[in-house]
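for ur thesis appendix - ABC transmembrane type-1 domain-containing protein. copy paste whatever u need, i formatted it the way the template wanted (i think)
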Amino acid sequence: MTDTVERGAPVIESRPLTELDRRPTFFARHKSLLLGLIGGLIVLSSWQTLVWVGVVDDKFASSPLGAIEGIGYLAESGMLWEPTFSTLTSVGLGILISIVIGVPLGLVIGRSSVLHGLAEPLISIMYSVPFVVFLPIIIFWFGIDDTARLVIVVWAAVFPLLINVVAGARNLDANYLQVSRVFCSSRLKTLWSVSLPGTMPYILAGFRQAVARSLVGAIVAELFMGTEGLGYVVQAETSNFQMDHAMAAIGVIAVIAVLLTRGVAWLESRLTFWSGSVD
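the 3d part is after this line
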């Protein structure tokens, strides 16, 4: 049987799809980011509208436009850059110490059934109990200087990282370990060459949580016992009833949190693309 083509009808020749045809659109590539921006704009515009119609009193709750003016004031008065740098320094040092402690310790605990049995209840308790309740003890031990604030940041960040690393080490593919045993690798070599790369998706997932919690720890420490940092700015400006300035500092904290978490998510997608996980 042969196909007939109506006389005068145009004939459209099909061609195979190229890589350019399969390339996702800009919206598809940045869908999560764009939807987040749209959601944020909806919330901010609704908030500003409630202020304009008088439902929300901006003297006590501030407003988006007032917060923008507050950012300008903080930047001009020098109350923005140094506190931001102080907070980021605490977060950076806390994360670095947490990585140095959490990753090796998690790998060792995860690969040892005895150590896991001994440490797992304590780790779960320390992670579940809010670190804020330990503030009086930390102040009693370390005072209220930078050391105490750094201890709080590390306390907040190290346990989610440790839990994820332990889980990754315990769920390591048995084939990887079998190959290591075939080549008679030492335990240290196995941890470095097999366990560490194999648990990288878990490590980066824990790192993302640790980054967020470290920022929370830094702000809490600055609120309660700081003389610098964005948390201290929020506390001081709120005490002076400068709600626009306080909300501006909170907005800067929110932007830092988003940038840190998105940056870690980007790093996670680049380093663990082979694992098949999708952000």
